[in-house]
Amino acid sequence: MKTKIFPIFLIITFSIIFFVFYKGLQNSSIYTPEIKSKIKIPNFQAKEFFSKDKINSDQIFIGNEYYLLNIWASWCIPCKEEHKYLMDLSKKENIKIIGQNYKDSLDNAKNFLAKLDNPYDLIFLDNDGTIAIELGAYGVPETFLIKNNQIIKKIIGPLNQNLLFEIKKLIQ
Amino acid sequence: MASLIGYYSLIFGLGVSILIVFLSIKNFNHTQKLDTKVTSLVFLQLLFVIISFSGLILSFAYSDFSNETVFNHSHTTKPLFYKISGTWGNHEGSLLLWLLVLTLFIFVFLLKSKNQPKQYKILTLLFQQIIIIGFFIFLIQTSNPFNHVFPVPKEGLGLNPILQDPALAIHPPILYLGYVGTSIIFSSALAAVCSNNITKMWASHIKKWVLVSWIFLTLGILLGSIWAYYELGWGGFWFWDPVENVSLMPWFALTTLLHCVLVLEKKLILTSWVVILSIATFTLSMCGTFLVRSGILNSVHTFADDPERGLYILIFLFILIFLSFFIFLIFHKSEKDNNQTFYLLSKETSILVNNWFMMYFLSVVLIGTIYPIFLEVISSQKISVGPPFFNKLILPFLIPFMLAMAIGPKLKWIKSDIEDKIYLIVFFVISLTLSILIIKNLDINFLYNTILITAAFYLFFITLRDFFHKRYRNLSQITAHFSFSILILSILFNNIFSSEIITNLRINETYQTQNLKINFESVKQENRQNFIAIMGKFIVEDQSGSMEVMQPELRIYNQPNIVTSEADIKTNIFTDKFMTMNYVQNQDYFNIRYQVKPFMIWIWISTLLLCFSGSLSLIKKKYEN
Amino acid sequence: MNILKFLISIIFLINFFSSDLKARNLETEITKNLRCLICQGQSVYDSDSEFANSIKILVEKKLDDGFNEKQIYDYLKDKYGDWILYDPGFTKNTYFLWLLPILMFLFGGAIILRKVILKKKKL
Which residues of chain B make contact with C84, given a CB cutoff of 8 A? Predict the structure, then answer.
């Protein structure tokens, strides 16, 4: 009796392992953090891009307007790609675009804006990248749609036509 | 052209496989001796694989970009040495290397086992052919190294610069000799079960193969570690990364098997266990291949992942598992030694204890590596299992393990008493005092570290005494245990005594602490064959006033465009000084990491000594015969 | 005699190293236990990606603000999930992870005990 149970037990175990590996193959091995919706944006302090004045996050995101927070840098190549979509959005009246200049040199960043135009209503500096971490970002570019101090949508990587469309629909 | 020949050789090789299977089955019951035709066919198969492999090497050497593998992994400006080593630096080429080693080993096996029973030899060959055919089909179907690109590109995509390194050029072949060597153990164990040939003679015959695989696997892991140490620029040598774990699992199984075979050589006990271990060893190698090649795990060293390949290996792996499982169930004679028991103080028991711990270590590594996959599939939660897990579960168990390693070999077969009790106690007291002296001034967990280091010192002293005391008896065993103690000691000391400085420096700036001064003298730029080197020059002065010039390097490779950081390492027998320099985005300073890592070289030396002890055992066997 | 010489040289060695010592750095300990999201096989400590560098600065800041180790881990886990920690901890997700190897160890021990002790009793 005992001799029969053991092989059967082993066969079942192996079958389960096979099944799990098989299922596991279909999952991506690259980790991306789960995107939680409706998180409150943290409180942070930063310097304004042009004036170098200190501003607090609650001075940036006021009331129940829509804000698009975009993390960018002049050295980031995908940022150039998504720039035209930001320009497009900046023509909309009911959304304010906030730029977060990530680990950039001021001169390069200014050149970047001079060359490609400035879609941002306001830009603040994130020289050491810690504000990005407060926001739960981990790369450039990343974009957050914010309303009522809450993140309603988070986009990792550059914007594209579809995402632009989605954002426009959300803020209608 | 070379690609075309290579491809057709593969097809022919597969064809020969089928001939071999056919002929061996015919030969199985007919004649008394093994048909020489079979051996010739095996040689022919080896020849085809060699031609195919040479074809790929030639395509790489001549940068024939009409070949997809070459196009994806090579570049004209690469030095010839790395063009050639690039052959096995990618998925397709390395699988071809697998196949080469598989066919080479079975050929050598047939040549070397003239005295073995014919049926056993044929069965081994058949099982090995199952594996070989599996790999042929895998190669041709999903990872053909000879795919054609049209139109022919002018330039290739280049080899990842961190792979352009001498240690990593020879690491895969050596490691595969170890990995694939286990296939012979697998086939031969299954054959021995089928033909009821598990004898003392079989044990001493298979021991050689166990030793060979074990030596190469150890050496392969060592090379990988050395490479990670100086090339990845982190100053570490073992990260409990899945790919490293995967090579460690068959190593544990092989080490266990090695000890068991030693028992089986002398006494016909533990037969089932030896067979299970032989099967497990190769299964673990295959499982490792699956985990690495399918991209199911997230690792620093993953190959390009492709679920189709993963699925193929997975199915193949489980066919082999179930095949061996049923063969074992059906053919294995229920043991006579089942009721045999051992005395507490006997060599048999001490070897069982070794097995016990080894299997535990194996289970920790195995479970730690694949657990995240299970958790994700079952509950879609993602977690990481990293160094803290392995350290917590493995390090404490090293204490009894090392004590057993010190005492175990002193015991005799069947029944014995511990001799030289006084010596054993004296050495223990010495080890304990020494450890307390070392640990007492440090800001770390006193009790735990003291006990750990005591155990390591104990093993060290006991084996050291055995060298002088026992003269040349059991030399390989003593050397192996001795080098293991040095390995553990140097790893522990390296961990405890390493210190480091991380700072940002501009040119001409000086960083100063109480006992150290680092002066960033200059930077110069040089153009090399396929990269631009940016070399920093630093002068490190310690409190005794001795100066050392360190020249870490940044390399900007042309194709693919990747910046790597080359550490400058100054090694002496006590300590390594290790400096890396890193570029910081948009700043005029560099990030400097300076580390002092004591006993680093002893980690390498002790592992080499471990390999050497294995070779000793191999030579001794020959001499006795 | 040989052993004595050896002891002396080892004690000498120890003095040699203890001069160079620094207290263990909490920041290093923490960053070694954090996994980088950009180069996913490396720890934050080992990695030089922008993300890892920012995390290093953040950990330093948080330590200055009086956060302890656990608070920093919780803070980062909240942002990036459990995945970011190399130490899986003992939670409901990891009971099996920790207990299975230990069970294997006990199981193996039981088998060996049965083989060894039984004979002794018979005698």
Answer: 384
**pLDDT(C21) > 50:** no
Same domain for C83 and C93? no
A157 Cβ under 8 Å from any chain C Cβ: no
Host domain of residue C122: 89-123
Both C67 and C93 in one domain: the answer is: no
Q: How many contacts, defined by CB atoms under 8 Å, are there between A and B?
A: 53
User: Least CB-CB distance to B383: which of C28, C48, C82?
Assistant: C82
Does residue B573 register a pLDDT over 60?
A: yes
Pick from B296, B585, B586: which is nearest to A24 by CB? B296
Q: Are residues C48 and C80 in the same domain?
A: yes
Residues of A in contact with B369 (CB under 8 A): none
For B:534-593, CB contacts with C below 8 A are 542-543, 565, 574-575, 582, 584-585, 591
**Per the domain annotation, does C13 fall within a domain?**
no
Same domain, C96 and C82: no
The answer to whether the beta carbons of residues B561 and B552 sit under 8 Å apart is no
Q: Are B53 and B9 in contact (CB under 8 A)?
A: no
Q: What is the pLDDT of residues B460-498, one digit of tens each?
A: 999 998 888 766 678 888 999 999 999 999 999 998 888
Which of C40, C58, C81 has the CB atom closest to A34's CB atom?
C81
Share of chain B above pLDDT 70, in %: 95
The overall average pLDDT reported for chain B is 88
Least Cα distance to A132 among A141, A145, A123 occurs for A141
Pairwise CA distance, residues A118 & A96, whole Å: 13
In a domain, C4, yes or no: no
Among C36, C47, C54, C78, the residue to mutate for chain A (most A Cβ within 10 A):
C54
Query: d(Cα C105, Cα A85) in Å, to the nearest integer?
Result: 59
Q: Which residues in A lie closer than 8 A to residue B586 (C-beta atoms)? A: 75, 103-105, 108
What total of structural domains would you count in chain C?
Answer: 2
Residue A34 lies in a domain: no
Please compute the mean of the pLDDT values over residues A78-98 and round it to a whole number.
Answer: 89
DSSP string, C11-66: HHHHHHHHTT--PPPHHHHHHHTBBPSSSTTSBTTT--SHHHHHHHHHHHHHHHTT
pLDDT in tens, B86-132: 999 888 999 999 999 999 999 999 998 888 888 899 999 999 999 99
Structural domain contains residue A90: yes
